[in-house]
Amino acid sequence: MAAVAHYVEVNAPARACYDWWRPFTRLPEIMDDVKKVEPIDGAGDRTRWTVSGPLGKSLSWDATIAEDSPPHTIAWTTLDSSDPDVKSSGVVRFDDKGNGVTGVEVSFEYHPPAGKLGEAVASLFDDPQAKVRKAVDEFKIVIEAR
Questions:
Q1: What phi, psi does 136 have (nearest 5°)?
Q2: 48 near 60, Cβ under 8 Å?
Q3: Alpha-carbon torsion 142, 54, 123, 93, what sign?
Q4: Are 48 and 40 in contact (CB under 8 A)?
Q5: Domains of the chain
Q6: What is the pLDDT of residue 128?
Q7: Which one of 90, 97, 105, 134 is separated from 30 by 20 to 30 angstroms, measured CA to CA?
Q8: SS3 9
Q9: What does the pLDDT look like over 135-144, one tens digit per residue?
């Protein structure tokens, strides 16, 4: 298991930050490896994530919202039925600091499977701390430009 986290303060209200993240469909804007996130149910609580994999291949898995406390927290986890058998979870917390400033913390854990599939999935998570930091910093740019 590996875990990473990154925190940044943004000049945007907590509700705007939460609303940007909640559908997850915008994540390709801030995460290079994420090709798309699509809702697979009407409420958007279940999503299919497609990411760029090694050797030009794509990998997909399904995730579900594990906690949704607007506008403070969104947490997700992969579904056991996902293929490949990638186990990951994450949480985004939005801390209203007042005066339109929000602290945003993204935490992510993953457990890649073993074997050749595990090696392929592990390449997706090469330097995960740098990827999470870059995504959160990109989010700051996007949300502050709105």
A1: -65, -40
A2: yes
A3: positive
A4: yes
A5: 2-144 (3.30.530.20)
A6: 79
A7: 97
A8: strand
A9: 999 999 999 9
